[in-house]
From TrEMBL:
Gene3D superfamilies: Bordetella uptake gene, domain 1 (3.40.190.150), Periplasmic binding protein-like II (3.40.190.10). The keyword Signal applies. Pfam families: TctC (PF03401). Coiled coil: none annotated. InterPro entries: BUG (IPR005064), Bug_dom1 (IPR042100), TAT_signal (IPR006311). This is Twin-arginine translocation pathway signal protein. Keywords: Signal. Residues 1-26 form the signal peptide. The keyword Transmembrane does not apply. Belongs to the UPF0065 (bug) family.
Length: 327
């Protein structure tokens, strides 16, 4: 059975050497890409990372005239897919949609076995950010956080679903349960595509998960959002309060993702991809498509990705400690 530690150790051991990068430079990286590019999504199809990355991949194909092939490689809280990216040739033909977990959370859980984002891969550009939503199945008789907590305490032991151990979708509900005093058991899945059916069938009672994955079910009335993480209400659901407004402070972190490539990838390739993301994120059609599913399109320089990750790590480190997951 693959463990997070085994996956990351194996991936890092196979990381490509600088010889490949030198070869890419010699062959003229300014022509990148001159063949299909593989885009690893480290979560299952149908989830927020997958959906939003596919929208961007369509635009990258139109811009560069090459196919950007989406490869879903879920498992080990997204670490299987990122390990595959780290182990690939640093030539710009394998990139990954890495999340805040890979940039700012996993090193505190897996210790030395985790990918070091400052050493093992290079950031390219932010892709998006979105809030996590405290969601429940519509059959639960609660319309506010306070009502849900009261119902949960009367009900007794409940289960919540997440996208894997150590993800923000695990840490947030664990912290929520600890602060409210409800008895909640963690049930890890590979992504929201599995969590949602479990919620609708009654196997799990709640989740604090990426909003994008749940929007269609919220709109259909099958799932009810009670509150959102973040510092302000989200345009897609203006009537839903923030966690702070609902009486739960310190739940103001959003989920985000950024493209990453193996360390040693030529900077000219990184810059071409980052430049493309700047134009894609500014496109009104893309922004509207993201907004429909509850996300905000972003772009940045590689340095801005690294800066955001460094700024958020202390907060996530404390959350990992509270959840009892420190490695």
């Amino acid at each position: 059975m693959l463990t997070r530690r085994t996956v990351m150790a194996g991936g890092l051991a196979a990381a490509a050497a600088g010889i490949v990068a030198a070869t890419v430079r010699a062959s003229g990286p300014t022509v990148w890409p001159d063949r299909p590019v593989h885009v690893i999504v480290p979560y299952p199809a149908g989830g927020s990372v997958d959906l939003l990355t596919r929208i961007v991949a369509e635009r990258l194909e139109a811009r560069f005239g090459q196919t950007f092939v989406i490869e879903n490689r879920p498992g080990a809280a997204g670490n299987i897919g990122v390990a595959a990216m780290v182990a690939s040739r640093p030539d710009g033909y394998t990139i990954a949609a890495a999340t805040v977990g890979h940039f700012a959370i996993n090193p505190f859980i897996d210790g030395p076995a985790a990918a070091d984002p400052d050493r093992d891969f290079a950031p390219v550009s932010l892709i998006y950010e979105l809030p996590n939503a405290l969601v429940i199945p519509a059959r639960v008789p609660a319309t506010t956080v306070a009502e849900f907590v009261s119902w949960a305490k009367q009900k007794g032991k409940l289960a919540f679903g997440s996208s894997g151990v150590g993800t923000s979708t695990h840490l947030f509900p664990t912290l929520f349960a600890a602060r409210t005093g409800i008895d909640a058991t963690h049930v890890p899945f590979r992504g929201a595509a599995q969590t949602i059916p479990a919620m609708l069938s009654g196997d799990v009672a709640f989740a604090i998960d990426n909003l994008t994955s749940y929007m269609a079910y919220i709109e259909s009335g099958q799932i009810r959002p009670l509150a959102l993480t973040g510092t302000q209400r989200w345009p897609a659901l203006p009537a839903v309060p923030t966690m702070a407004e609902a009486g739960m402070p310190d739940f103001d972190m959003t989920s985000w993702a950024a493209f990453a490539v193996p360390a040693g990838t030529p900077r000219v390739v990184v810059d071409r991809l980052a430049d493309a993301m700047r134009d894609i994120a500014a496109d009104e059609t893309v922004r509207r498509r993201f907004a429909v599913v509850g996300a905000r399109a972003l772009s940045s320089t590689p340095e801005q990705v690294a800066s955001r990750a460094a700024r958020e790590r202390p907060i996530w480190k404390e959350t990992v400690r509270i959840a009892g997951l420190a490695g």
